[in-house]
Amino acid sequence: MKRLYMLWLLLAIVGTSYGQTITITDAQNNEPVELVTLSANSKLYVTTNAKGKADISAFKNVEKIEIRSLGYKTVVKSYSELEAEGFSLSLEISNLNLDEVVISGSRWRQSSDDVPSKIISISAKDVALQNPQTAADLLSISGKVFVQKSQQGGGSPMIRGFATSRLLYSVDGVRMNTAIFRSGNLQNVINLDPFAIEGTEVLFGPGSVIYGSDAIGGVMSFQTLTPRFSLTDSPLVTGKANVRYSSANNEKTGHFDVNLGFKNWAFVTSITSWDYDHLRQGSHGPKDYIKDYYVQRQDSTDVVIAQDDKLLQIPSAYSQINMMQKIRFQPNDRWDFQYGFHFSETSPYGRYDRHMRVRNGTARYAEWDYGPQIWMMNNLSVNHSANNSVFDQLSLRLAHQWFEESRIDRSFNSNERNSQSEEVGAYSANLDFIKGTGEKNTLFYGVEYVLNDVTSNGEITDISTEVSVMGPARYPKSTWQSMAVYVTDEFKVADNFTLSAGARYNYVLLDSEFDTAFYPFPFTEAKLKNGALTGSIGGVYRPDDSWVISTNLGSAFRAPNVDDVGKVFDSEPGSVVVPNPDLKPEYAYNADLGIAKVFDDIIKVDVTGYYTSLKDALVRRDFKLNGQDSILYQGELSQVQAIQNAAVAHVYGVQAGVEVKLPKGFGFSTDVNFQKGEEELDNGETSTSRHASPFFGVSRLNYKANKLRMELNVNYQGKYDFDELPEGEKEKTEIYALDENGDPYAPAWYTLNFKALYKLTDTFDVSGGIENLTDQRYRPYSSGISGAGRNFILSITAHF
Asked: What's the whole-number mean pLDDT along residues 643-661?
């Protein structure tokens, strides 16, 4: 009997020590707060689950536990204080925080107090209120990222005057950029599912020390849903189901995700389906944006059909499906294994800006479509905590991604359909370490290997006979490899001053084999070997809790990829881009200074100024192929061009924000962005950089009270006159409005929008609103399709 009692006592002690659970709630409505981060030094952190609970057993005897969540005041408590309070804590709402937990700065969780780069976060709560249709729209709700669109099924972010392959995408810590990410507008971000993203961060400025090639203008880091464990003997079952309708494109969306958690195992399953009809633009605006016809094939002839509704943008309809499955296993508090499977596929969709082109007084194209855009990723991450001389924590990420995309075009009343398809197998391995060396110093270091295998095919089909023959491919068969090592040191000079410095060495190999059957290239292969050394140094100084001053100096690079070296395509009517195997990396050098100040816990002002210089910029310039400056391409004599290291570019600007806490649950905020980019031309003159957008911003009046959130906001963009447009944009008369001289320009515009979310019960939320209340016809700078006209949104979400 005594032995049984001792065994019971031992089990009780073990059970007690197995886990100590804290519960964190919202002080205003007493609801649980998910994704609260509790951290201590660089070694300990946990996050709360959907029920606001977290196991903090590992924090026992810790004197300083920092408790942070976006939108709440930061709390610092000791373990003994939390124990005295019954391991229950309420967080007070605050939109004026100067610190938060960020990951994108180093791949590890850090306080923004210690990161000199400017980083913003977009929370899942903001996404639920704003109801973005795609991940590109999700980025734009920040008011700090400009998004260009050439068709409804797309979205190409612009950050600090850079875009496309000069920005880097990271999904669950894995590089998404591939060797065919192009200098033209990119649509890959729409492969991500906003419903399955629990947090988004945007790092502004160079990020090459951590992320390597392409991270010149910034890094967009997406963290998808993380499987959560049960903290009791009962399984943890949480999730949500959502249905949404939008009127401007007859959107019909459905989403479902579920988390099943046990003590050591957890699973997340997510699936989303979207269906969009043709997008209707607004009633009030430039008539030049209206294309009131579409092309239809009738009796072996292409016929121009007049639209009944002139405001519909035909063709722009498409659909998409996303699926995700994650499995997580944590055998003990030192090891954490996680596997993720992601799949996304769109339907074919029309590239609307190409359908606006005319030739000989009629439509130039009968077809110009993107084929299905497919993305798949398998990702295994292993995290291990230790206490040795080499590391405190290590993270191993092994990933395989598959990308598939295609282009289909056919000229008006031509029987010849041109198809080009690309497939990329992307393999990556990242091994990252973090090591605290004393109380004030932390090292982040790691190694990376990336391999891209590119296959490209072309096909020409006679649609009258359905006979297909091989056609010219867009890219050569290629492999692109990157090997790198990096180290960053973070040193707390004082409690209110942190200094960071880092360096990275990258070695990039590119091997391409050209097919000369269709074009007489004077070469059959390209072999590039380039090394790149980049670095950064910066500091964060907090004179007191209401001030933050940060500055950062950094360099970044972009190594030539397959798109730069080997692409063949028509950039605009009368021009054709051909391969150039003689390229080297471009380098960016950046300086920025940020100041943020909170006045009396009522007003927050945040201003960041920056300057970036791009050397040996990879740009499209006139070229000669076999001594000829023009060749016949798709039946048209075209000027030969190629990507070349032929320019110096400079971008400078200011990002500024103001937040005001008003009485009775009201608040006001505004974010504005001014940037100016200049690019050197062949003749020695300068032109506006193509991806330096006009002035843009958003102003918001919001209200929060218990179960209700409301927001009235205004999105706006400044004007680019004809002489302010980049030289390469001045010929694209089909996508711009025309001034009194018949020259293209980008008009200023605004949209007035109302959004609301109401929690009907503990289970059901209803959200929605009206976008573009005044039904403006507007087109974001450089876009080939107009934004939605007046748009009614209704969304219902069930939480369980």
From this structure: 94
